[in-house]
């Protein structure tokens, strides 16, 4: 079942490389395949039960490279399934959004379907080599998206910067994986086995070194300060759907690596390094928010909010390592919050990037001062962007609040000094409200004149992402029932 | 209908109807009627709920459900919120003529959030309602978005109150860390240090919403919103909820031993200073806004003193009084186009019912016996005197100021219009010169409330209120009542003869917004700009320099490749040719042998390359790095 979910888009991508397929067919085929994949995920979701510790649900395992203990091993649990679902949803929204794209739609569809396969592969992989292969292929895919469909004179350069930076990061990650492999009693790349074996337990130096390699690799991808500078240019030059996937899905591969690899496999090192991780998280929260506040380019601004939002996740997973302070309830809450934030940020930021893309499509600019009074010609865009902005700044009734409340309550309840990160939600609020004010309020001027409001496919793609955020915000049990048992397991694993 | 369902409907009906009205702008024409219908149902539901006092919860977060519970305090508050909402929406049906669907939708969501705040049983539910209330206040204050400064005022209101809201997040963390769980009633169980932190967080959050010092300035900016918004926000919703929250957590404040004293003094000082600000205003909405902060000061004082029954009576009486006055001010603004007090001369004579009702409410605000605020305020002041004489003196002075500003308002609207009056007309908006039943009827109803609700603080009702709150019955002291009533009467009568002083130092709201701007906003924006430059010129440039260094190394390697390795290869080729020529001179057996040797070398190369795939990871990794180096060089070449 999981293999079908992962490889269905890839198979479709291969078919779409046939030049005989018309653009129209390609666009609709993309939507159909993405929808079918979501349907399959819905089946998995409906039949999902949290597996016992040390197992995965919907597990599949085939021999692959037995010589090095690497196998085709995939499966899901409460930490990966929400991200798998979020990924298929974001890709479907992108397919719908791109229904009117004219620029090589067939190849674009094939490329995004390829990206969907490898992204799903990252989240279901239960083998480090498999994880790494998918992880790197996602970088390659995104490189071509930005270089091929990006706009602006610097798209090629931004794409290259993204590629080199994240690829180098992935090599650090690989180094860490090899460190885990060589120090295991029976060398293996199997994630489940490594989490049971705890290869570097009792070896603080080696464990710290391996964790450092993994953390640097993941920090680049997440990204955290100071490894984030590839993100703004990549986003600014990427097409709208490219940005949606990059922020919505690809960034999660970094934070997912924390909860899937670093924490369960290196618990002792994680606990030892908890404070540095927390500090990096807090700095990312505040620094990302402040730099976003100063941006004049709306898309860059949204890009920097990702640094801020991912900072909350890093803060929360760091707090989970402070096993000697606070209560276990608080630490578990922080992990649940971190996982919720990954899903929430995926939905909300993808929606925001899709909406911001409309500005460029209509008026050719992301410049905040180039608009004004946009609410008059574009009431739908205004409504959706305002909803997206409030969702992103953590307003209750949206998923961001569910995530951030748990992160803050858990973090502050464990380490009160982390309350300083609360300023992040104040700064993001100021930033979004000022942007709303500058673009949508006042007299209609500049790029707002003659602005065409959202068309149906733009409305439904971004709108449904925000509707899901609303659903999670009002009825969080739909997702927390899946996340909480896995988070409890992880909290225990970190405590070993 | 079971009371639990009524409780859910009380919140969900306005919330969902409001959301639908916002998202379906086609319903423009019926929006007002729909909103009034929902508000009427809401009032009925509030009465049902207040009587039955049910509780309801659904699972929400781990260890904290979405928890609604009605107790004595909320049973008093809910009908107040629902009734004021209904009357304000009746006024809005006539007053709002554009964007009705959006307006009424937002108002219903705002009201739903206020109702939910009143019944929230734990910190998650409270924060949920609390922040939705803040966000809708932004949208309502900035409702006329074509004027950018109004949206900016909404931003100021939201950012200022959210700064306070951070306290609730911190309180939730502290409650969890202190082992008390998130329930509001259980916060006192938290261990000592955590309990202090939770109390501090709640105090800050409540002071922010209640516009107490030093947060008061946002209330001045909130006056840029439509009049119905002011009427609801100041009386029974957002600002009132700040005071309400402190009444609810008064036991927690007391348990810390310092937070109650802090609340009492902040409330008393706010009542005094913002009273002075109100006296200094020449704009009717600004006067009323400052008076709201000042009157909420008495509620906060009550919470600090543990005098919840007096506090809630004052809150309810003030809701009725202030809603009446804001609706009246809004009606005059719509009719005459001015908010200036000197432009309102004769307004009470022109629209009699409106004028008389507003005057009754203003007399209540002044603290004239036997109207409501006279009794409720003295219930609080009596408790203050038991605590500290100074606290009582500050409170009494604040109460005298309320007589002064209320008298100023009454005098302004009853003064005969002169030639100068009409010059102020239409200076804020185009007036309609019309005020109808949709204006005067709600004001009259609310004025009746302003007159009689003081009974909540007097026997026999005061005993019932105290019992509902689980407190000892307490009444205002007779001497306190006489003292404050006399002061109020003397000041109001004096104002008809002498012009009352206007302290100019208080006209600008004590410079609070300016101070916030200079001390917090601007430094933050400067820091943000500086960090953004650092991000580009510092961090990013460092990364780029590193990449350039790598590229330089690659170029060096390339040139080495050309001049060194390639030359060496050329040399080797030449040498090979020489060798070949030498070989050609060898006999046939020699050639045979060299073919054999070549075959052997191929075989060996094949074996060597096979060894690379031997599963030894460091070999793989070395190859990967080599490959990466090649890719980097390749990309740098392509990327140039």
The beta-strand count of chain A equals 2
Q: Number of helical segments of chain A?
A: 19
Radius of gyration of chain B: 36 Å
N/C terminus separation of chain B: 75 Å
Helix % of chain B is over 70%
Low-confidence stretches of chain B: 634-640
Tell me the number of strands of chain B: 2
Instruction: Sketch the major β-sheet of chain A.
Output: 2 strands, antiparallel
Q: What fraction strand of chain B?
A: under 5%
Nearest-integer average pLDDT of chain A? 94
Count up the domains of chain A.
1
Number of helices of chain B: 24
> Helix/strand/pairing class of chain A, anyone?
mainly alpha
Distance between the termini of chain A: 33 Å
Q: Which bin fits the share of residues in helices of chain A? A: over 70%
- String of helices and strands of chain B: HHEEHHHHHHHHHHHHHHHHHHHHHH
Class of secondary structure makeup of chain B:
mainly alpha
Instruction: Name the quaternary structure.
Output: heterodimer
Shape of chain A: globular
Order of helices and strands of chain A: HHEEHHHHHHHHHHHHHHHHH
Mean pLDDT of chain B, to the nearest integer, reads 87
Label this structure with key terms.
heterodimer; A: 496 residues; mainly alpha; two-stranded antiparallel ribbon; 19 helices; 71% helix; B: 640 residues; 2 strands; 2% strand; elongated
Characterization of the model:
The complex is a heterodimer of chains A (496) and B (640). Chain A has helices at residues 2-16, 23-46, 81-97, 105-124, 128-149, 155-183, 191-197, 204-221, 231-237, 240-265, 267-272, 274-293, 298-319, 328-363, 379-392, 399-414, 423-440, 456-474, 477-494; strands at 57-65, 70-76. With 496 residues, chain A is mainly alpha-helical. Among the domains of chain B are: 258-507, no CATH class; 520-585. Helix content of chain B is 76%, strand content 2%. In chain B, a hairpin with a 2-residue loop joins strand 1 and strand 2 (64-69). In chain B, helix 6 (148-177) packs antiparallel against helix 7. The radius of gyration of chain B is 36 Å and the shape is elongated. At the A-B interface, helix 6, helix 12, helix 14, helix 15 and helix 16 of A face strand 1, helix 5, helix 6, helix 22 and helix 24 of B. Chain B: InterPro entries: ND/Mrp_TM, NU5C-like. Chain B: Keywords: Membrane, Transmembrane, Transmembrane helix. Chain B: It is found in: Endomembrane system; Membrane.
